[in-house]
Design brief:
Length: 238
């Protein structure tokens, strides 16, 4: 179980705090529930027992150590009970908060900024999937064919690109940098006459673009930071 959570120790998370909640989570996770991200509080002064936020594909879990770390309180909120999430960046860390459908406001401060951005993005993705479950279940090939009828590629060409292993940039992108190839992401650049702005695309078309960027990341064609920038920009219109 501990090996599973080592991937969350790359954004200044306190290893001791992660270790404390690891053994607890093994008993708390439901069937088919997976942890998406863990954020750990980091106050300016030494925080011996910081609070943590665990985001899974089913809920948000607030972990609060008690009795000098000998026990821990867990409070969870399922995604269908969450109305909205917010992030406020301060001089010292950020504050992550969310409202429930019963007008309950929950917040936790002194979250490192990069962790706060990660949990905010993950939360927004889960809320969007909850509102549009059919979009997440639609196969990628069908989405490309249905939502982009004006594409210059016919259906056979699209299926051929998906079936073949990508070996170079030239197979899927022009011989330019990633930023030049995806001008719609750069709001400061003027789109060509044939392009459409992100604000003009439907949620299905935006989801399709996000999937295409994920495919580029998986094949090593763009960096993680570039993918995060594209994803954040697209999600702001969904």
């Amino acid at each position: 179980m501990k090996e599973q959570f080592k991937k969350f120790l790359n954004e200044e998370q306190d290893p001791k705090a992660i270790e404390k909640i690891t053994s607890k989570l093994s008993d708390l996770l439901m069937k088919n529930e997976e942890v998406g991200y863990i954020a750990v509080q980091k106050k300016p002064a030494i925080t011996v027992f910081p609070d943590s936020i665990v985001l899974t594909n089913k809920r948000i879990i607030i972990c609060e150590p008690r009795n000098l770390g000998l026990s821990m309180n867990f409070t969870d909120y399922t995604w269908d009970n969450i109305a909205a999430t917010f992030v406020k960046e301060n001089i010292l860390g950020s504050e992550f908060s969310f409202n429930t459908n019963t007008d309950l406001a929950i917040s936790i401060d002194y979250i490192p900024k990069i962790q706060a951005r990660k949990i905010y993005t993950y939360a927004k993705e889960q809320l969007d999937l909850l509102k549009n479950p059919a979009t997440a279940e639609t196969p990628l090939a069908e989405t490309v064919t249905v939502t982009e009828p004006e594409s210059d590629f016919d259906e056979d060409e699209i299926e051929e690109i998906e079936a073949e292993e990508v070996t170079s940039f030239a197979e899927i992108m022009p011989a330019t940098t990633p930023y030049e190839s995806y001008e719609p992401i750069q709001q400061t650049q003027q789109p060509s006459s044939g392009d459409r702005k992100l604000s003009e695309l439907s949620k299905e078309e935006l989801f399709d673009k996000l999937q295409n960027y994920k495919r580029l990341l998986d094949n090593g064609l763009i960096l993680q930071g570039e993918y995060d920038t594209y994803k954040k920009e697209i999600l702001s219109y969904m």
